[in-house]
Design goal:
Helix content is about 40%, strand content about 20%. The chain has helices spanning about 1-5, 70-85, 90-110, 120-130; strands at about 15-20, 30-35, 40-45, 50-55, 65.
Amino acid sequence: MLVEIGLPRKTEFFIAEQPKLVEMAFRSGRFCRVGTDEVNAVCVDMSDGQVLLLSGSGAQRDRFINSTLRDFVDFLGRVTLGRREFRGLTEPEADAGVAALKRQLLDRDPRAFADEENWWSVIFEQMEDRPL
């Protein structure tokens, strides 16, 4: 699938790596690590295809990212482009753009925003609270 859809090399919150199967401490299952958020591993769960942010220690909470790798790549692309477009807007225009983008993504993968601690929920909270 990665050959088919590809991954961006780097965005403001994701750094791609050569995909590799890994066993993560503190959890069972097989994961394919596809990148990082500069601290934790972004992995595809090989049992069901969902994308997760896995902490390397047991200290931080793992976070759900997307239901599929295809959704993850789509979200990355849309958010990266949206953030570029929002930079030249007034604050009310940027707020409206962020809200519209979140609605589009919510339609695509509702689970990404189902919990306030999910990765995309946190990213959008940061986008809503700070200037882009």
